[in-house]
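Q: Hi! First time doing this. I have a protein sequence and I read that you can turn it into a structure. Is that right? Here it is:
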Amino acid sequence: MKIHSITMLLMLAFLIGVGIIPARAQALIEGTIEANVPFAFMVKDTTLPAGKYTLQRLDEADPKVLEIRTANGRTAIIFEAENAQIASIPHNPELVFDKIGDQYFLSQIWANDSDIGYQLPKTKTEERLEGDGMQAQHHSILAKVLKRTKKAK
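A: Yes, that's right. Below is the predicted 3D structure, encoded as C-alpha cells:
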C-alpha cells in the first residue's frame, strides 16, 4: 500500500512537472517582439535582409509555430521552434544568432519574463557549414516587447 501511494505521488509530480514547461512557454510570446537586426540572416532556408522585424506566435493553439515579419509587412516566414530553457530569466528580450563564416542564422528567441524560450532547428546550410569544420559564434540582438495580449503567468 505504501509503495503504491509513493508511486502514485511520483507519477503525479512527474505529470505536473511536464505540464509546467509548455504552460510557461505559452506565456512567452503572447504578443509581439520587435528587433532591429543589423545584418542579413537565415530563418529556415530563407535569407532575410538587415532591418526591423516582428516575431509572434501564429496560432494560440500551437505555441511552437511562430512568424517573423518585416516591419513593412511585405515578407513573412512561418517556422516551428522547440522549447528551450536558460539558467536565469533574461533582463531584456533578445534574439540570438549563430554566425558561421559570414552567414547568420536565427537560433534562439528569449523574452524577459521567462526562463523558457525558443530554439530553432539548424538549417541544412548551417549543418553543412558546421560539417565542414566551421564553428558557430553566438550574437545577441536586444529586442522589445511591443504588446501583450495576455498577462504572462
